[in-house]
Amino acid sequence: MRVFVLLLNADTDSEGIHTLKQGQTDTVLMFEQEDDAARFAMMLEAQDFPTLTVEAIDDEDIKEFCQSAGFRYRLVTPKDLVVPPEANLSEDAWDLNREGETAATEVAEGDRDSDGKLSDAALERLRKQFENLL
User: Which 3-state string (H, E, C) describes 62-123?
Assistant: First the structure.
């Protein structure tokens, strides 16, 4: 069966597949409908996520890839409501050389000044993210 997945940096040396991180587990979403995959990608972009490419692929290829990479997979049907998480990891968070670290934590820590308050740059970025949602 043909499904649709979301790719980062498609057709480049640093191509990656979009996953949802749930605890320590990464899950690849396989969309039955191309429109649903495109809609999910647009919702991510509204949250300042890098541009994603919708790619058609055989579901058995994705299942095999997930098994070899230690990922889970989930088939998203048209009746499923899938909403992106509130926080995204940065584009380089999937770098295999950074075991156990998440860029989201680093960004959150880097956004605070010595008093623990959010920096002006962090507040401005959040403001832009909220505006993009409207």
Answer: HHHHHHHHCCEEEEECCCCCCCCCCCCCCHHHHCCCCCCCCHHHHHHHHCECCCCCECHHHH
pTM more than 0.90: no
Which residues of the chain register pLDDT less than 70? 86-118, 122, 126-134
pLDDT tens for each residue of 1-11: 999 999 998 88
Would you say 87 and 103 are in contact if contact means Cβ atoms under 8 Å apart?
no
Per the CB < 8 A criterion, the answer to whether 7 and 1 are in contact is: no
- Quickly count: other Cβ atoms within 10 Å of residue 67's Cβ: 11
For residue 83, count other CB atoms closer than 10 A to its CB. 7
Name the β-bridge partners of 56.
Answer: 4
